[in-house]
Structure formats: structure tokens, C-alpha cells
Amino acid sequence: MPEVITVTQLNTRVKELFSRTAGLSDIWVSGEISGLTKSTSGHYYFVLKDEGSEIRCALFKGSRARIDFEPTENMKVRMFGRVDIYVTRGSYQFIVETMEKSGVGDRYVAFEKLKKKLSDEGLFAESHKRKLPLYPKTIGVVTSQTGAVIHDIITTSESRYTADILLAPAMVQGEGSAESIVAGIELLNKAGVDVIIVGRGGGSIEDLWAFNEEIVARAIYNSKVPVVSAVGHETDFTIADFVADLRAPTPTGAAALILRDKSEMRSEITSYMTRLNRAISSVLDEMQHSFEVLDSRLDPQRGLDALALQRMRIENLSKSADRALVDKMHDMILDFEGLDARLQPSRALDDMENKKEYVEASLERINVGIMTSVREKESELSSYSKQLEGVNPLNVLTRGYSMITGPGGKVLTTIDNVNVGDSVTIHMRDGKAEADIKSKEMKE
Q: Using CA of residue 340, residue 343, residue 346, residue 349, what is the dihedral sign?
């Protein structure tokens, strides 16, 4: 009967085989670092690759201490170590004992060259970047139909401002992926979406390379609507990120940037409503104050008092004029008597005649002045009377309105001035009526 062994036994035998094979231990291997990650324990994990193949590598914390530089993505290196297998997972890997730099990776050189070229042409300029619509109705997404990106975007959008999501399925990795992404961008532009998300999940530089292609960069730049790049994780940058109108760290972050949070919008609307209510209350308060001022000015008793005051002023002016006339005549009589005693009879008669004419002329001028003053005051009184008559609320009664006064004759202009049970007087065009207040209601 053939031997039957467990998976663990099989992986253990392979591990022992690797350790006994001379060509798999204490060897130097050259290649380019890709997909570099560092664990919290201080170990480094990455892929070493060349044009034809790749192998997973592990650089443990103790071996890292012997290296005098920091390994980075796309760095070309020579590594000394051994081939091993991780028994638990059965994964084949290279355990790095030490490492030397040997240059920069070919893809990194190509990336930097294209980045400089497009930057010099102005494709990354801030002046070209467009603002995202505040409330987009339709969002276009260029990504894989089967990947997690479209699912993450839909899930995020459910808790935010509602918008339609239109997917343009595209290859996001491998040969022909760049052309597929460009076709998706152009298709969504023709569909009339408001904003486009171009994205995929994280990965190595090879996995993301389609978003470093020049044709993709130019398709984003020439898009008629804003484009948000959501490629890789937060630490991964591509050419698409630099040329896009906005870069999101993840596809989920892209949806959060484009669509506003519903709770945030509710809070903002509540704030606007509060401010609007305050403004309306302020306007109503100002109008109430204006009405109260106008009501006080239109008080009938106040108009009658003003008219009586003007009449009193005219009477005083008339009495002052009479007193002035009497005083003047008295002075003139005294002058005549003095002259009569000093002058000869014949000459006195002539002077008396002259004085008489002078007095008569003076009296005429005084009389004209008094009449003119009286007419002016009468004109002013007539004008004041017409003005008061124009604003007299009693005249409104002739047009079908009525006026209500409370106890004491005060005109009632607001519901606050009257209480249930009060007796009021209703003034109408041809009379008045007495009434009692049975109920009252404040207008909303």
C-alpha cells in the first residue's frame, strides 16, 4: 500500500529539501522590489521580480538591522539569502539575510519621465481642475464590474445624498486595461453624467500600471465633466491622481467626497430655517413698531389738540397786533398834543393836517400788515386742518370701514388691547353701536 502523508508532512519535506539543496541556500538574487509592506513587528514583506518572473520575499527585523538603507518600492537590489517554504500556508519564499542597492527600477524611471512630461504640458495645473457639482444627479464609475470598488461606492452612497450611479465596466489590470479605461471615460461623457470616478483597489505598481499610462491621463484631462481618481490605497499615487480634478484615497472616500452626508444636510437646513425665522421675526417686530407709531399719529384727539394749539397761536398774534396798534396811536396823540402847545395856531393847523395824513397812512400800513398776518395764519390753519382731515381715521368710515374704541375712547389696533368681557364702541359712517367682547383669537 502506497504511503499517505498529510499536507503538513508534505510541506515539511519540501522545506527540508530546500535546506539540503546547495543551489537554494546562501545565494544572491537580483531584481526589483514591488508591493513593499512593513509590519508592526518590524518585518518587511515584498515581491522581488524581473521581466519574466517574481518571488515573494521576507526581510525579518534582525536581518533589517544589518542593512544601511531603507528598502523602497521600485528599488533594484541584490539580495543574499535562502529559499524556504512557509509550512502553514505552503508558500514558497526567499528569506533575505542582507541586501545591496543596484539602481532604480525600470517602471519607476518610466513613471517619473511621464510625470515630468505631462507636468510640463500643464496637465497637472490647478487652474485646469474643476469643482465638483454640489448635488450631482448621476455619477459615472469606471472600474471592474466584479471588483469591490463598485460595491463600496454603492454602499457608501446609501447614507448620503441620493444620486444615480452608472457603471462603465472596464479592465483595470493587465494588457488592454488602459484602452478599456479610456473607453469607459469617453462613454460616460457621452452619457451626460455629472461627475466620473475612475478607480480600483490597491496593489503593486504592476497592478496599478494602467493608471500610469499616458492615454488614460489624457482621457481624464480631456473629460467634459470633473473626474475623481480613486486608485489604490492612501499611500499609492498614480499619474491619474495628478491629472484628475480631485484625488480620493480610496473608492469609498471618492463617494464620500462627491455625495454630501444626509445628516449634515439636515443640520444645515435646520440652521438655515432658524436664521430665516429670526429674520422674519425681526421684520415683523419692525412692522409692529411702525404700525404703533402710525397709530399714535392718527389718534383723533391728538389732531384736535394740534388744531386748538394753532388757533391759540393765531389769537395771541391778533391780540399782540391790537395792543401794538393801540400803543402806537396813544404815542401819536401825545406827540400831537405837545406840538399843538408849541406851535402857532395857523402853522399848527397846517402841521396837524400833515400829521393827520401821516397818521392815516401809518394806520393804513399797520392795518394792511395785520390783515396780511391774519390771512397767512388763516392759510396755515386751513392747511393744518386739511392735513389733519386727510389722516383723520373718522373719514375712513365713509368708505365702508368701522373703528372700534375701548373704555376711555382709545382706538383699539391690536388684540392685546382688549380682553374678554370688555365693552367696546363700534363707530360707523352714520352712527355708533355698543358691544361686549365674548372671545378673542390671536392670528398665527
A: negative
What SS3 class is residue 100? Answer: strand
- Is residue 32 within 8 A of residue 106, CB to CB? The reply is yes
Q: Which CATH number fits domain 7-104: 2.40.50.140, 3.30.420.40, 3.30.565.40, 3.10.20.30?
A: 2.40.50.140
β-strand partners of 350: none
Residue pointed to by grid coordinates 399848527: 348
Cβ–Cβ contacts within 10 Å for residue 311, how many?
Answer: 13
**H or E element: which one contains 395?**
none
Q: Are 229 and 251 in contact (CB under 8 A)?
A: no
Tens digits of residue pLDDT in 30-42: 999 999 999 999 9
CATH architecture classification, 110-260 = 3-Layer(aba) Sandwich (3.40)
CA atoms within 13 A on the CB side of 441: 2
**Structural domain boundaries of the chain?**
7-104, 110-260, 300-391, 398-436
**pLDDT tens-place string over residues 179-214:** 999 999 999 999 999 999 998 887 767 778 899 999
E strands, 244-297, in order: 246-247
- CA-based torsion, 170, 171, 177, 178: positive or negative: positive
Measured in degrees and rounded to the nearest 5, phi and psi for residue 437 equal -85, 115
pLDDT in tens, 17-34: 888 887 888 899 999 999
